[in-house]
């Protein structure tokens, strides 16, 4: 196939048009009533995530209820409402409240997403086993970090970064390497949707266990994955056997 200068320009113009339409879709609409309150809540939460918790925040796509149309503008999007926006810049960790609010004002309506692999990785399990594991871990007196509850029926445990790369070795050492577990780990390159956003039009994401200051600097300090993994693997295995 031969590309001419003209065709290359047309391709660039078409891509710019798609991104422009996506940006307009995200930014358009009068922010009145509930919409304004939602935007204000998101701005406040983004400022808390970046400033108080030391997490970067990435503006994410939104999807119509039912997850059919994605605000990224790609009609063939394979993950409607569940990925970062291609044209939006992340709000860096340690941003001041004013900086965070000003940055988020550029993308009103965007979903709040957190990048894994930096301040934390995420152990992802089914909701009911996750709830049972959390109760068991707290009874044991183990330190547990933040836990998200997604409307897809998943519980997401924040653990120290590096867990995704170490997961196969950890499961091997614990004797769970040959078990069929409904458990995965999200790391570098992955994102999780955080409150107050919804996920793919399916419903709101909630904290099953909210972030709490625990380090000397007051930032949440997620535990090492190995401290939680045995319990999460056990309850995940029991749930699969009982199903």
Structural account:
The chain is globular and about 50 Å long. 38% of the residues lie in helices and 14% in strands. The termini are far apart. It is of the alpha+beta class and 243 residues long. Helix 2 crosses helix 3 (97-104) and helix 5 crosses helix 6 (225-242). The protein has 6 helices and 8 strands.
> Would you tell me the overall average pLDDT?
86
Biggest sheet overview? 5 strands, antiparallel
What gap, in angstroms, lies between the N and C termini? 53 Å
Rough outline: globular
How many strand elements? 8
Number of helices: 6
Helicity level, as a percent range? Answer: 25-40%
Q: What value does the Rg take, in angstroms?
A: 20 Å
- The figure for the number of domains is 2
Question: What is the percentage of strand-forming residues?
Answer: 5-15%
- Spatial order of strands in the largest sheet: 6-3-5-4-8
Helix-strand makeup class:
alpha+beta
Order of secondary-structure elements: HHEHEEHEEHEEEH
Low-confidence stretches: 1-33
